[in-house]
Records
---
Amino acid sequence: MSLSLIKSRIAKAEAAAGRAPGSVQLIAVSKVQPNERVQAVLDEGHRLFGENKVQEAAGKWPDFRAQYAGVNVHLIGPLQTNKARQAMQLFEAIHSVDRPKLAHTLARLAQELGHCPDLFIQVNTGEEPQKAGILPTEADAFIAECRALDLPIRGLMCIPPVDEESSLHFALLRKIAARNDLTQLSMGMSDDFEKAIAQGATHVRVGSAIFGARDYA
Ligand SMILES: *Cc1c(COP(=O)(O)O)cnc(C)c1O
C-alpha cells in the first residue's frame, strides 16, 4: 500500500460519514520501520508520525527534524514516569496518559519546563488486564483529576481488543469523550481506521498499511 492510497481511503471515509474533508489527521506510525521507508514518506510531504517507544524516537527523530521542517511526532505507546521528561521534549503530543502517577509527573514537569505537549488519555475500553489505559468506569474521574492539574487534555485514545468488533470500542470512547467535552479521538489502525472514522476519529494511527509489515527480527 502507500501513503496516497491511505489518504484517499481516509477522504472517502470522511465523506461517507458526512464529515468535513481534512477532519481526520493521519498519524503515520513509523516504529521499527527502516529509516529509508520513513524518509520516503517524509519526501512525499507527510509530516505527522507516531512512535511507541521514547528511546527509539530519540534515536531517529532529531536527525529527521534537522532535515525536514514542520515534523510532528506523537508518542502512542506506554510511558514510564522516568522517561516523562525526555518524552515532553521529544513529542508534540502524548496519547498514552493512563494513570494518576504519570499525570502528576507530567504536571510537575510542565511547570518546570514551561511547556507541555498535547495530551490524550488512553482508555482500556476492553478492560484487558495486560493492556494500558484507565478503565471506562474510572475515566470521568481521571479526566477531572488531569484537568485539575492544568494538563492540556485534548482527547481520548484506545486500542480495542484484537478479537472484538472495534466499532463498539470506538463508540464507547466517543461516548466518554462527549460527556466530558473532549473533541479529539485517537482511534483506528491499519485494519480498522475507516470504522474509526465512521465513529468520529480525529486521529488515526496507521503503520503497516503505509510502510509495509514491521520486521522485528
Ligand atoms: C503499532 C501501533 C499502531 C499501528 O499499527 P498498524 O496495525 O501497523 O497500523 C497504532 N497504534 C498503536 C498504539 C501502535 O502501537
---
Amino acid sequence: MLNKTYAFAFLLLYIASCASQDVEFTFNGFTGSSLMLDGVASIESNGLLRLTNNTSRKMGHAFYPSPVRFSSNTSSFSTTFVFAIIPEKSGIGGQGMAFVISPTNDLSMAMATEYLGLFNKSNEGKATNHIFAVEFDTIQNDEYEDKNNNHVGININSLTSNQSEFAGYYDDDLDSFQNLNLMSHKAMQVWVEYESEDKEIKITLSPVGKSKPKKPLLSYKFDLSVVLKNTMYIGFSSSTGSFPASHYILGWSFKLNGTAPSIDLSKLPELPRRNTKEWSKVLKIILPSAFAAFVLICVPIFIYMRRQFKYAELLEDWEVEFGPHRFSYKDLHQATNGFNEKELLGAGGFGRVYKGVLPVSKLEVAIKQVSRDSKQGMKQFVAEVVSIGRLRHRNLVQLFGYCRRRGELLLVYDYMPNGSLDQYLYSGHEKPNLNWIQRFKIIKGVAAGLLYLHEECEKVVIHRDIKASNVLLDSELNGRLGDFGLAILYDHGTEAEITNVSGTMGYLAPELTRTGKASPLTDVFAFGAFMLEVVCGRRPVEPGAQGDRIVLVDLVLEHWKQGSLVDIVDPQLRETYPMEEIEMVLKLSLLCSHPLPGGRPTMQQVMQYLEGGKPLPDLMVTSMNYGMLAVLQKEEFDSFVMSYSSQMMTSISTQSEGR
Ligand SMILES: *[C@@H]1O[C@H](CO)[C@@H](O)[C@H](O)[C@H]1NC(C)=O
Ligand SMILES: *[C@@H]1O[C@H](CO)[C@@H](O)[C@H](O)[C@H]1NC(C)=O
Ligand SMILES: *[C@@H]1O[C@H](CO)[C@@H](O)[C@H](O)[C@H]1NC(C)=O
Ligand SMILES: *[C@@H]1O[C@H](CO)[C@@H](O)[C@H](O)[C@H]1NC(C)=O
Ligand SMILES: *[C@@H]1O[C@H](CO)[C@@H](O)[C@H](O)[C@H]1NC(C)=O
Ligand SMILES: *[C@@H]1O[C@H](CO)[C@@H](O)[C@H](O)[C@H]1NC(C)=O
C-alpha cells in the first residue's frame, strides 16, 4: 500500500519534471491520448483527431494537456504533424486550421469562421494575445490580406499573416515549386521549426510520404520570445464558416530544444473514404461545383483572353514617334459600342465606317476600317497617314490618327454630321435636295482642298479616291474631302512611285491603268468625274438597259454636241440654276476628264476657272469624242487614245495659247 502510494507520487513527480524540461512526444494517431478538446473537436474511434465536423460556423480546439516551458529566452523547438482537410463541398473551404502556441488552453471566447477559433472581434490584432499560429487557410479574406483560398501563413497575434505563401513545396528532385491543394482530401505533413540562435521560424509542407523538402515554404526571422510567455500551451485550432469542412490531424510529434521525432506514417489512422454514397455526391455536388468552378475560373480567363484577343492590336517600335496619332483599339472599340451595327455610317468596297465617341475626350469621330493584309508598306503607309493627320484645311476632313490590328487598319476622322454628298445626290428624298448655290460651293470647296493637297502642302498628296461618297458635308454644308485611305505622298519635284491601281471605276484616269503612276492629274481626272456627278446627279458609270454601261462623260459630250446640255443637268436643279455657270462647270469637267493627262488643267487652273478669274478655253465640241466606254475596256483603249489625243491636244493648246 505504502509502496503503491510512493510509486504513484514518484510517477507524478516524474511527469511534472518532464513537463518542465525538454518536452518530447509523438502521437501516431490519437487513440487513448489525453488531448484537451473543446468545441466540435473529437477523437474518432480509429484515432483520427477531427477538429471540426461537418457543421458550419463551428470551431474546435485540441491542446497538449500540459503546458510547455519555453523559458524567457524562447527555446528552440520543432514539431511536425500530418493533417487533411475534407470540405463538404469540394473546392469550397470551411475556413481553415492552425497550429497554435497560446498562453491559455481555453480559447472558448474566440470565434469561429474567419477568426479560426484563435481570436475574437475585440482581441484580434492585439499584442496582449501572445499567440503564435501557423495557419492553413482555405478561404480568402481580403480584410486580413489573404493571398488566396489556399495558403499557409505565420500569424502573430493577428489573422493578418506576418508572412504567407501559396500552399506547396519545393521539390528537391524536380528542383521546382509544386502546388498543393489544402482541400484535396489528401494528407499532408508539416514541419514547424524555431531556432532560438538564428531567431528564425521555418514552415515546411509536403505531401504525406515524401521526405521533408530541404527548402522550407516559409522562413521568417522573428524573435518569438517577444510573443511567447515562459509557459505556453501547444495545439490546434480550426473553424468552419458558411460551408463546413472536416479538419483532421492524423499524427503529431513535438520536441523542445531539439528535432521532433519522426511520425510513423504506417501507424496513422485512415481518413474516411469516399464511399459510393459520396460518388453520388460527386455527381450531385462535385460535378456541378466543378462546373461552377470551371465557370468561375475559366469564364473570367476566357473573357480576359477574349478581351486580349478582342483588343489585340499591333504596335511596333517605329510607331512610337506617331504616338499622338495612334489610337488604342480598346478606345475605338468602346467608342463604337464594339463596332455596333447601329453605329454604322456606311460600308463600301474599302471597308466600313462607324460613328464613335472617344471615351475621354468625348470627341465625335468617324472610324473607317480598311483591310490591309500585307505588312509590307505598312510603315510607309502609316507614316503617310500621320503626315496627312498633320494637315489642316477647311475643306479636308481632319484625319486624327490610326490604329493597327492584324490585317486591319482603322482610320479615325473628324465626324461630319451632315454625312457624305452622295446621300444628297442619290438617296431620293431621304436627304434635302441641294440647290445650285450649295452644290457650287461644295465643288469649289473640294477643289480648294485638292489644290491644297497638290500644291500647298509640304509634300504632294495624291488623294486617289475623289468621288461624291468621299466628300463630306460639315454643319454649314461645306464640302470637305475625306477618306485618305488611298492617299499617297511624295516630295515636290519628284514622281509618285508605281502603285497598285486603286480607286473607283469611272474615276480612274486611263493612264493609271497603263502606268500605275498616280499624279495630281489623275486626281484632276477624278475631280472631273466628281463635278459631273454633282451637276448631273448621276454616277459616272451606270448600268444601261442592255447590260451595257452608260458613261456619264460620253453622255454629257453627246448632249453638248446636240445643244441639249440642259437635259443632262440634274432635274432637281432645273428651276433655279444660272445656266452659264453650270455650263462652265460641265465644260471644265470634260476638260478634267481628258484621256491624256496633258490635256487636263492643274488644280490651280481649275480653281481659277471656278472662281471666274480665268475664262475656260473654247473646246471644239464637234471634234470631241472621249469614248470613255473604250477607256474602261482597256484593250481597245490604247490605240484609240493614241490616234485621238494629238488632235485634241493641239486644239486645246492652241486655244489656250491664243489667250
Ligand atoms: C458535430 O459535433 C458536435 C459536437 O460534438 C455535435 O453536437 C454535432 O452533432 C456534430 N455534427 C455532426 C454533423 O456530426
Ligand atoms: C455529416 O456528419 C454526419 C455524422 O458524421 C453524417 O451522418 C453526415 O452524412 C455528414 N454529412 C455530410 C454532408 O457529410
Ligand atoms: C475575446 O477574447 C478574450 C480572450 O479570450 C476575452 O477576454 C474577451 O472577453 C472576448 N471578447 C468577446 C467580445 O468575446
Ligand atoms: C508581425 O508580427 C508583429 C508582432 O511583433 C506584429 O506587431 C505585426 O503587426 C505583424 N505584422 C504583420 C504584417 O502582420
Ligand atoms: C538566447 O538563446 C540563444 C541561444 O540559446 C543565445 O544565443 C542568446 O544569447 C540568448 N539570449 C538571451 C538574451 O539570453
Ligand atoms: C537545450 O539543449 C542544449 C543542449 O542540447 C542545452 O545545453 C540547453 O540547456 C537546452 N536548453 C533548454 C532551455 O533546455
